[in-house]
């Protein structure tokens, strides 16, 4: 009876370890430890139990999950043609659309975004997450003849009508789309169809 109990316990223990993803060496070590304990108490397993332990070790090696040979490749960022945002006026998130001013308004075009004094041309757009984009921009002051400066900005979109942008230098801004009809009179009078279509 003790021999049969030992065999059943060893098999169940080894099967449990295999199910948990343990390797065969761990199961064999546990079975050997149990065998040594039983030898000390005077109920040593016979040759058939030892053979069953060896068979269990072999079965565990076959059932153990294979380790991956190489690490999975890091996902590549997908290059896209334009940010998936509505084109038109974007107003700072803390400013109502009807109270927008030159200081709080940006005009999003297919090729870039700008305010009253500056414009950032999108040179490269990479989608790095479900709603995150890494944008290489060439930004310049519209009232200065200096060459635009290239930088990288991360845009996190909230649907297709709001975003938060954060530069590599650490500045951050949030804005949302405002229909032209909801803007102050000066903005409503502008014809922006050529840059938003």
C-alpha Rg (nearest Å): 34 Å
Count of distinct strands: 9
> What percentage of amino acids are in beta strands?
25-35%
Largest beta sheet: strand ordering: 2-3-4-5-6-7-8-9
Relative helix content: 25-40%
Count the helices. How many?
A: 5
Poorly predicted sequence stretches spanning 5 or more consecutive residues: 1-73
How far apart the termini lie comes to: 86 Å
The overall pLDDT, averaged over residues, is 75
Main beta sheet, described?
8 strands, antiparallel, barrel
Order of helices and strands: HHHEEEEEEEEEHH
Question: Could you explain how this protein is built, in words?
Answer:
The N terminus is likely disordered. The longest helix has 18 residues. Helix 1 runs antiparallel to helix 2. The chain contains five helices and nine strands, in the order H-H-H-E-E-E-E-E-E-E-E-E-H-H. It is α+β, with helices and mostly antiparallel strands. The termini are far apart. It is globular and about 45 Å long. Strands 2-3-4-5-6-7-8-9 form an eight-stranded antiparallel barrel.
């Amino acid at each position: 009876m003790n021999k049969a109990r030992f065999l059943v316990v060893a098999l169940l223990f080894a099967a449990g370890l295999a199910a948990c993803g343990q390797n065969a060496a761990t199961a064999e070590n546990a079975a050997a430890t149990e065998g040594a304990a039983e030898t000390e108490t005077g109920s040593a397993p016979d040759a058939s139990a030892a053979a069953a332990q060896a068979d269990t070790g072999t079965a565990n090696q076959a059932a153990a999950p294979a380790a991956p040979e190489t690490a999975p490749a890091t996902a590549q960022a997908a290059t896209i043609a334009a940010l998936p945002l509505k084109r038109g006026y974007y107003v700072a998130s803390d400013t109502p659309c009807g109270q927008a001013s030159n200081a709080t308004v940006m005009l999003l075009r297919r090729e870039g975004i700008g305010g009253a004094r500056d414009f950032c041309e999108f040179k490269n757009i990479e989608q790095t997450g479900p709603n995150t984009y890494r944008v290489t921009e060439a930004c310049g002051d519209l009232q200065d003849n200096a060459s635009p400066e290239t930088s990288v900005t991360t845009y996190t979109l909230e649907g297709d009508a709001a975003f938060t942008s954060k530069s590599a230098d650490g500045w951050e801004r949030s804005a949302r789309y405002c229909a032209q009809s909801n803007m102050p009179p000066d903005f409503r009078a502008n014809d922006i169809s050529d840059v938003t279509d």
